[in-house]
Structure formats: C-alpha cells, structure tokens
Write a structure and sequence with these properties.
Layout: E1 2-13, E2 16-27, E3 31-35, H1 42-49, E4 57-62, E5 65-66, E6 75-78, H2 90-100, H3 108-118, H4 134-146, E7 152-156, H5 164-179, E8 183-187, H6 191-197, E9 200-205, E10 208-213, H7 215-219, E11 226-231, H8 235-244, E12 249-252, E13 255-260, H9 266-272, E14 280-284, H10 288-298
Parallel strand pairs: 3-8, 3-9, 6-7, 7-8
Antiparallel strand pairs: 1-2, 1-4, 4-5, 9-10, 11-13, 11-14, 12-13
C-alpha cells in the first residue's frame, strides 16, 4: 500500500522554479529519506504536503486522498525548530495541541499518557518544557506530532543540534515508531542518519529527484566496491599509478580517494603502490556520503 504519492509536482516563486516535475512514492510503514542541499526544494515539498502551499501543477495523494484540509489530520509534523511552549509542562503542551485537533473527552488523559510513554517522558509529565534537555525537548515535539494518531509522520532534521547520545536515543525512537506501523518521511543533512534509518532515499537537487532507491540500489550508481583514501607527498605519482590500474580518483575534502572495482587486502593495495610513499591509507565501503557527492556533482 502506498501512503504518499507525488506525481509531477511543480512549484515556482515568480519566475524561479523550486520544484520541477517531482514524483515519488512512500510505502506504508516505510522510512523514506528526502535529502538534498539547502535550496533543493525540501521545505517547499513539506509545505505542500501539509497544505500550507499549493502546487502549481501535479497531484499529491496521502493515504489515497488528495491533499486538502482533511488530509492535515493524517499528518504529524515534528519541525526542525521545536514548537513547544517553554512555560507549560509536558502534559500541558500535549493538552494544548490536542485541543487544537479537537481532541476532548474521557479518553484524552489516556492519550496524553500514551504519547508521553511512547517518547520516554512519562516521568516528566509535570515538568516545565524549559527544564528539559535538548534531546527531551525533541522527544516532546515528537509526542505532540503523534497526539492525533497520524498515519504519516514528517520529521524535519530530527536530530539537528543534539549530542551523540541524544541522537542515538532519537534514532531508536524513530525505529520504534516504524515498528508501531507509522510511515515516516524524514529530511536530514546527516548522511549517516539517513544511512542507518531509511529504507529508501531520494536525492533532490534544484527541485528535481535525481536519484532514488534503497542504499543497495544507490550503490549501483558508483562503479566501485571499495573506497581507498590515501595521504602522500607524491599525489601526482599516486594518481598516475591508479590510472594505470584503472582506479578512478576523486577528492573528498582534502582526502585523495581511489575507487576500487573489488575489495583488496591492505597488503595487495600497498603492493600495487610500491615505490610511492604513503603516509596513511584507509579502506572504506561505499557510503551514502560518496554516493551523495557523486550524484550532486554530476546530476
């Protein structure tokens, strides 16, 4: 079953195109990562999904319904900037947003507790939001997004600004929400986050989806099975040797990298570069960061 489907969606601000025939689908129960540089059109896409903007062309369906005021109830949004009221308690924050969705009645207290428990904040129900750590505030924002039991959860940069431990906690929470059957559309600039969490990934550039698929499928875009990073005072000689071996060379920041068509043992690589002083050498699998850089450079 498809939870979200965009078909040839376009949007321009004046004469400046922001989205150009964007088409993608997200299956029910999937975590889909929408990645791209600033200005690629991610925020515009999210605003259109939330019915805050109208597309110029194209169709969008959520749970097989066209985007409208009604589909807002199908979506929960945890924005990059946490929208919580600092001087309300966690429970009061949830109560406020529940009322905005028209949730009332005897079952509401139980729903509030369920949401707090889902994000691990049951013991902080009566704590003021301003007393929470950054990670806890993110979790409270997530609880607010879940209060009306949405089918599609949009997470915009869910771990930006969090320390490593809080990031790991948020990742596990996102995985648990998926296990609970919630479909998740996630944007992030943290490529390791997308690599760890997402079932499929779409790469957006200048409003166009230039690559999409699972990580295994995206790896097929790079003709390499392993990346070797080297540091040497004789880069020209190293590149010339790699060219003889038919190893394409690339740069990732200050790192010189060679793409190997098949993994080799370290001693085999050293033998191939015999006579060239290597200060350091490191082997890496093809990662999402390599795919992202290559696609963005060539797409």
């Amino acid at each position: 079953m498809t939870m979200l489907h965009l078909d040839r969606v376009s949007k321009a601000y004046g004469k400046r195109p922001v989205l150009q025939d964007l088409s993608l689908s997200v299956a029910a129960g999937e975590i889909y990562g929408l990645l791209g540089p600033n200005g690629a059109g991610k925020t515009t896409t999210l605003n259109i999904l939330c019915n805050l903007l109208k597309a110029d062309r194209g169709t969008i369906r959520i749970n097989d319904q066209p985007v409208s005021e009604r589909t807002k109830l199908l979506i929960g949004v945890a924005p990059q900037e946490t929208l919580i009221y600092r001087y309300l308690t966690c429970q009061e924050n949830l109560q406020f947003f529940a009322n905005l969705y028209g949730l009332r009645g005897r079952s509401l207290p139980s729903r509030l507790q369920t949401c707090l428990a889902a994000v691990g904040l049951s013991d902080r129900a009566t704590s003021l939001a301003e007393t929470l750590s950054g990670g806890m505030q993110r979790r409270l924002s997530l609880a607010i997004a879940l209060i009306h039991q949405p089918k599609l959860l949009i997470l915009d940069e869910p771990t930006t600004g969090l320390d490593l431990e809080a990031r790991f906690e948020m990742w596990e929470l996102i995985r648990q929400l998926q296990r609970d059957g919630i479909t998740i559309l996630l944007t992030t600039h943290l490529l390791d986050e997308a690599e760890r969490l997402c079932d499929r990934i779409g790469l957006l550039k200048q409003g166009q989806l230039i690559a999409a698929g699972s990580l295994a499928e995206l790896r097929q875009l790079i003709p390499a099975q392993e990346i070797v990073l080297v540091q040497t005072t004789q880069e020209e000689q190293a590149i010339a040797r790699a060219t003889e071996l038919n190893y394409p060379h690339h740069r990732y920041g200050n790192d010189l990298a060679f793409w190997l068509p098949a993994p080799l043992e370290l001693k085999e690589i050293l033998a191939q570069f015999d006579g060239i002083p290597l200060d350091s050498i490191a082997r890496q699998p093809v990662r999402l960061e390599h795919i992202y850089l290559e696609v963005m450079r060539s797409g």
